[in-house]
Specification:
The structure holds 2 protein chains of 2 kinds. Chain A is mostly helical. The radius of gyration of chain A is 24 Å and the shape is globular. Chain B folds into 2 domains: about 325 residues, Rossmann fold (3-Layer(aba) Sandwich); about 240 residues, Rossmann fold (3-Layer(aba) Sandwich). In chain B, helix 6 runs parallel beside helix 9, helix 10 packs across helix 23 and helix 17 crosses helix 18. Classes of the chains: A mainly alpha, B alpha/beta. Chains A and B meet through helix 3, helix 4, helix 13, helix 14 and helix 16 of A and helix 4, strand 6 and helix 6 of B.
Chain lengths: ~350, ~675
């Protein structure tokens, strides 16, 4: 969350004391109300997602018991295993058991790893979280860069717009493969697989290598982790950043022509002051909304890109779980992404409230 | 020259020689924009001076170039136009000076107030910070807010613009404009977005600030009444040129250019004759893409001759300080001004004698049933909205709080009120666009209601032709296909549009033509009642007059009732038989047009009538602003602003009902402290 706040730094910085005051305001009753609403939304989403995964499991021709025991298992052994896993219970009972377990953090037992799904996720999530947050921050920074550089009047602006359009139309996996071919194979600048080349990594506490490296004073770990992050994060964030950049550019140019910007100029402010103090804060709203929308797409991108870059995150975990019908693992990942989506969009809403005082009244 | 010299002397501004150099001097200014491959000649040779401490009014219809002139002086012309001539403010030419120099002039010597204070203030910045940007310090900001009459200024500094009322917002804009005591404030339609009672207060403020600070104002306005109230000198603009300039009283009373004369004549006031058609200017403002070589007004001018169309007329002095750009003799123009327009077709009358009995018959609608068949009968209608979005909680906005109104067959009723009065909500309920939360709304017949909207451009689907738009209702009304084209042509003819318009699209028409299309669409199948939602408020005076004439004529030819919502009492007076005055979701007074405008009885109606800007009227500014319908005051909702309020007026148990005075049949007033004469 802190990484995301950092991403809109320019906007937050211009807001200054006004932002501090706005924070006081949103931390009042309206914020509690928003969080309560989002908690309810998250609960509804969790139930809906869990139900869909269970329905899929019902419809799937794969038998988890058979998958666990291997192709040579006898019919009676499979039947015994099915009973043990509770697969023969009525659908509602299975779903109910699962939902009741959720509040206690019980996501069931993975059929494949034979460990609690929660434990598995704990092992894989930090890698994905680090990649996803890097990608979101990068998407915002690139978006701002694209917005400004395509709206300025310089000879390359229209060429850049064309390149961006082409880049944004390429799927993330293609960008990933292309990036590997250029920056790893040809130029040899950046690594193309895994999170780190260092063996004695600091053991914690967050599992985020950049953060843990900083905490442990291991700057070799930090720079190595950052190098590994660059290519996959770029592949994920490029498309969303173009979308964010386009929205931001449109809102910047329309806010530049607004009545209040004219008022600010009439006061004798410089163009720079008009942009920084008046226009920017009014223009970030649509870009933030677009960011929230793009997060869902970026999650899908993360799962694919992790495969290409051999990133040890939940993308890998999911890829291994699907062929063996490891439904508890699949359900766990699904719920995690759903909650992640709600969380990110709640953060976006709070940031919009900070940017625009009218939203909370 | 027949004008009264003493009047002119009183009205003339202090001569510039007394006060030194003019603060602003425009010399032969030309401004040409390039739009879609065509040259838009916004200003075509304007010269004007503003003396220190002088209030100069710049009056004209839309497209006359008056706002462009203001922006030229501010050095804020957008869209990189071609310019020639000079626009000098305190020695700096705002057309050619460098960006830094222009910025310094704006910061030190200029202030600006724009039309809509909601959009002209940064919505995401506290007003205090916005004022400090111009004023330099918070103490100075507090002092300025106090000077412009903002109560509790220190607390207001912490407010965001949306937390202030419209009047307070415009006062904040004015405080910013006069920060650092500029030499000149450019005020572009500063009161157009405000309620009429608030407008009077803001105009009073402008005058007071000029007296206290000594700064000059360039007041850009389309409203001649506004100009008449505060300006020392007035310049009338038409199609990028000044047609006439001189002392305000002189220009407005003794116009020396046919355009100014025609503008004054088509203007509505509370003295406008209700029984003859309004004097609409024929034709429309010429396109700035293709200006006339000679006098731009010649195509619309009754006095024009062949000598008018070759070269632009040179301004000549017709009275001390009064210049007019017309080649005709002054005597001829004066004769035109005094002429009784007998040649106007009598068909365009607005009030009709046939409806007077109907009007009388529906009096007493509030109590007792009415036997007369009604076009619409609204009984005790309530409507509440939930407002607030996003993270905030929703609050009830009480738009209508028990409204009863009956419109008889063929009768025209105007509903007048300020923002938040519920007048548009009432119209939407009658139109069936929304449902009432309580009460009943009955339409007299299946012919139903049709609506004409304020923004006629936005209410025409852009990709459909006018013919298709007008035809739509014929299909649903079951008119045979073969007949539809003929009916469309008839409807267009009836509203005075040429038949070719059927093939055009909304964006190709002028504002006045679009409003006529709106009327054609509403009347192609004549409704029982025509609902008009401020159809003239976005139009220039000359067009507004022709639309009002048209509504009156359609009403009689098609035998419709009309329910006409407007914020403008002088419009209500000429379109309607009866006027209902609304305040905060209730009708506070209803009566015949003459009763309401000439003998108002409710204190609010009296305040409204007094606030109508006009020549030679010095309105006592009513105190306060309309209260919020989110939080209507208890008892009589008007009591916080009422000069006659007593303790019992604020009693939460009080429910002032409409009641007639003894011996009166047509007028009902909801007030417990009436001064009955």
């Amino acid at each position: 969350m802190s990484a995301l706040t950092g991403g809109v730094g320019p906007a937050a910085a211009t807001a200054g004391p006004a932002a501090a005051a706005a924070l006081r305001r949103v931390t009042g009753v309206p914020l509690v109300r928003l969080l309560a609403k989002r908690l309810v939304a998250a609960a509804v989403i969790v139930v809906a997602l869990a139900t869909s995964v269970f329905v899929l499991q019902r419809l799937s021709p794969l038998d988890p018991a058979k998958a666990m025991l291997g192709p040579g298992a006898s019919a009676s052994a499979v039947a015994q295993q099915r009973a043990k896993l509770g697969l023969d219970d009525p659908f509602a009972a299975q779903l109910g058991r699962y939902l009741v377990g959720l509040p206690q953090g019980d996501l069931g037992m993975s059929y494949r790893t034979r460990r609690p799904v929660m434990t598995d996720l704990g092992a894989f999530v930090p890698a994905t979280a680090e990649l996803a947050f890097t990608a979101i921050v990068l998407a915002l920074l690139l978006g701002i860069f694209f917005a400004v550089s395509t709206s300025l009047r310089w000879p390359g602006a229209s060429v850049l717009r064309g390149v961006l359009m082409a880049g944004a139309s390429a799927p993330a996996f293609l960008l990933g493969i292309g990036a590997i071919l250029v920056f790893y194979k040809q130029l040899g600048w950046l690594p193309a697989s895994g999170r780190s080349s260092i063996t004695d990594l600091p053991g914690g506490p967050s599992g985020l290598l950049v953060l843990d490296g900083l905490l442990a004073g291991r700057f070799d770990v930090v720079s190595d982790a950052l190098k590994h992050l660059v290519l996959p994060a770029l592949a994920i964030s490029f498309g969303p950043s173009v979308a964010i950049g386009r929205v931001l550019r449109t809102s910047l140019s329309s806010e530049e022509r607004s009545d209040y910007a004219r008022t600010a100029r009439a006061k004798g402010l410089t163009d720079g002051a008009v942009l920084r103090r008046h226009v920017l804060r009014n223009a970030v709203g649509p870009a933030l909304s677009m960011t929230g929308l793009q997060v869902g797409l970026m999650f899908a991108g993360v799962l694919v890109v992790e495969q290409i870059f051999a990133w040890p995150g939940i993308g890998q975990y999911t890829a291994q779980s699907i062929p063996v019908a490891d439904f508890p693992a699949i359900a766990g990942v699904t719920l995690l992404l759903g909650i992640g989506y709600v969380v990110i969009n709640t953060v976006v809403d709070i940031l919009q409230g900070l940017a625009d005082p009218r939203i909370t009244t | 020259m027949s004008q009264d010299d003493t009047t002119a002397a009183v009205a003339t501004a202090p001569p510039p020689t007394d006060a030194g150099e003019p603060v602003a001097r425009v010399e032969d200014l030309h401004v040409t924009f390039r739009r879609a491959g065509a040259d838009i000649r916004a200003i075509r040779g304007v010269s004007l001076e503003v003396a220190p401490g002088e209030i100069v009014g710049l009056v004209g219809e839309s497209g006359s170039g008056k706002s462009v002139l203001g922006l030229s002086l501010l050095g804020l012309l957008g869209g990189s136009p071609r310019t020639s001539g000079r626009a000098v403010v305190r020695g700096a030419d705002m057309l050619t000076a460098g960006a830094a120099e222009r910025r310094d002039v704006r910061r030190l010597h200029l202030g600006a107030v724009f039309q809509d204070p909601m959009t002209s203030l940064n919505p995401t910045m506290r007003v205090g910070r916005q004022i400090v940007e111009a004023a330099g310090s918070e103490d100075e900001a507090v002092r300025l807010l106090k000077a412009v009459g903002v109560p509790d200024p220190a607390r207001r500094l912490r407010a965001y613009p949306h937390e202030l009322s419209g009047g307070l917002r415009q006062r904040v804009m004015i405080a910013m404009a006069v920060a650092g005591t500029p030499s000149l404030v450019i005020a572009d339609e500063p009161t157009t977005a405000l309620d009429v009672t608030v407008q009077a207060q803001v105009l009073g403020l402008v005058k007071r600030l000029r007296d206290e600070i000594g700064c000059a104002f360039l007041l850009v306005t389309h409203d001649l009444g506004v100009a008449a109230q505060v300006v020392d000198r007035v310049a009338v603009m038409y199609a990028g040129r000044i047609t006439e300039v001189g002392p305000a009283d002189e220009v407005l009373r003794n116009g020396a250019h046919p355009y100014g004369v025609a503008l004054m004549r088509s203007r509505l006031s509370l003295r406008t004759d209700r029984d003859t058609p309004l004097l609409a200017l024929p034709g429309s403002v010429p396109s700035p893409a293709d200006p006339e070589p000679g006098c731009a007004f010649a195509p619309r001018c009754t006095l024009a001759g062949p000598d008018c169309t070759t070269t632009p007329p040179v301004p000549v002095e017709v009275a001390p300080g009064h210049l007019a750009a017309c080649v005709r003799d002054l005597a001829e123009i004066r004769a035109f001004a005094d002429a009784v327009p007998a040649e106007e077709p009598p068909a365009a009358g607005t009030s009709s004698g046939a409806t007077a009995p109907a009007a009388a018959a529906v009096a007493g609608t509030d109590d007792g049933p009415v036997e007369e068949p009604a076009a619409v009968r609204v009984q005790n209608a309530y409507r509440t909205y939930g407002v607030g979005s996003g993270i905030g909680r929703r609050r009830p906005l009480q738009a209508l709080r028990g409204v009863s109104l009956t419109v008889a067959r063929g009768e025209a009723v105007a509903v007048v009120g300020e923002s938040g009065s519920g007048k548009s909500t009432l119209l939407r309920l009658v139109a069936g666009l929304e449902r009432a939360d309580g009460g009943t709304i009955e339409l007299g017949s299946a012919a139903g209601a049709q609506m004409v909207f304020q923004d006629s451009g936005a209410s025409l689907t852009p990709w459909l032709t006018i013919g298709e738009l007008v035809r739509e209702r014929l299909r649903s009304a079951g008119v045979p296909r073969a007949e539809r084209d003929r009916r469309v042509a008839e409807a267009l003819e009836l509203v005075g549009l040429p038949a070719e318009v059927a093939k055009a699209r909304g964006t190709q028409l002028s504002g006045g033509q679009r409003q006529r299309v709106g009327l054609a669409r509403a009347t192609v199948v004549p409704p029982e009642i025509l609902l008009c939602d401020e159809p003239t408020s976005a139009l220039d005076v000359s067009l507004a007059a022709s639309v009002i004439n048209l509504v009156g004529r359609l009403r009689r030819e098609l035998d419709m009732a009309v329910l006409f919502v407007t914020h403008d009492l002088s419009v209500a007076r000429v379109v309607a038989d009866r006027i209902a005055v609304m305040y905060l979701g209730r009708i506070v007074e209803i009566g015949t047009a003459d009763e309401i405008t000439h003998r108002p009885r409710h204190p609010y109606t009296q305040a409204l009538v007094a606030a109508v800007p006009d020549l030679g009227v010095e309105p006592p500014p009513p105190s306060g602003e309309p209260a919020s319908p989110l939080d209507p005051p208890p008892g009589c909702a008007f009591h916080p602003r009422c000069p006659r309020a007593t303790a019992s007026c604020s009693d939460p148990g009080l429910d002032p009902r409409l009641a007639a005075q003894p011996g009166e049949r047509t007028r009902l007033t909801a007030c417990i402290n009436l001064e009955v004469s």
